[in-house]
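User: Run a structure prediction on this.
Assistant: Running it now.
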Amino acid sequence: MPESLYAVTDPATGEVVKTYPTATAADVEKALTDAASAQAGWARTSTVTERAAAISRVAELHTARREELAAIIVREMGKPLEDALGEVDFSAAIYQFYAERAETFLADEPVELLEGEGSAVIRRSSYGVLLGIMPWNFPYYQVARFAGPNLIVGNAIVLKHAPQCPESAAAIAQIMVDAGLPEGAYVNVYATNDQVAEMIADSRIAGVSLTGSERAGAAVAEIAGRNLKKVVLELGGSDPFILLGTEDLDAVVESALAARLDNTGQSCNAAKRFIVADHLYDTFVEKFTAGILAAAEDITPLSSVAAANNLRAQVARAVEQGANLTSAGRNERAYVAPGVLTDVTPGDDVYTQELFGPVAMVFRARSEEEAVQLANDTPYGLGSYLFTDDAEQAARVADRIEAGMVFVNGVLLDGAELPFGGIKRSGFGRELGRYGIEEFVNKKVIRTLR
């Protein structure tokens, strides 16, 4: 039996609450066999309506078990309880969104012929068994946006969750069973990285979806490419928060704090780089820094000591290279003191890095042009935030931002109906919304002459 990689470790105390056995070769083979069997049977014999009904039940069970589910991820990765409950609710909403719209999204699409007799239609059908590789920062939400639409399409799923989320992974798998999905339609497996590589190469896996680090995404994409497997990747980002003008700076500061500190700063599309117009910069920095420091009193730990140590090392290197740090609060084990970095310049390591925790970078922009240049001067391109009272400026700048998502005059506006994804090194493909259900679908053309 291999040493267990999967464990619930309370980040606040370092206590190992429970360990889970890492999958054996036989476990992996059974997962693939069961999923392939479900793909050959359930996916072909069930209807969209029947599968949508099961996913609606998944949504109901998330709601019914919300307190239990929330408590699990508080234990696993230190998520604040209010955030944990909100994540469970959002996950339920995602499942329900797809359950209610599945027949519309997957309906036959007539094609207007340019010439010739007869008809043509695009029929959407299942793609095949999918491997999902999920991260720790949103244990339920990440699975919901991948599994919900794909199970309705009829794609069986093998789900490999993060090693620090085994309890939530098991809870999700149990919900799928209790909702009436047959054996093999959704399989949880506590696999190692080597086993993941073998599964991607296995002919029974048709596609892969990963949310995680840039390094993990590159590794998965390389293996998938060699084996001609389609991949969807969401690899995080260093999202800009651009402030060009406002008549209510206090309200914008509150939005900025929410955008940086949500989930203790451990969100792929959190605002991490704050780019502020010259005439607002000094006052914004004063008010924003005060808010960040005030958050230290109630800050929760990061997901692990390793994550905290990595962030501390990034901040220390930034200071070493000339940045100015203002911070306060507990800064030990998995706790990182909330802080603000200013005077970061191109060439500094942190300038192109993602800070995954309660530390922000603030930049001064002396013109709209410079603000856009700073916003786009990053290897990432996931989300972005733009604040201005000038509607024409908002439209103009939003069009120029190099990102998969732009939120104007608001934060935390994600919704089940809004496609989520990025460009550049933030990955490719989309989840959520209409486009999220289209990624792993066989769009079959049926051309009939008579």
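The radius of gyration is 23 Å.
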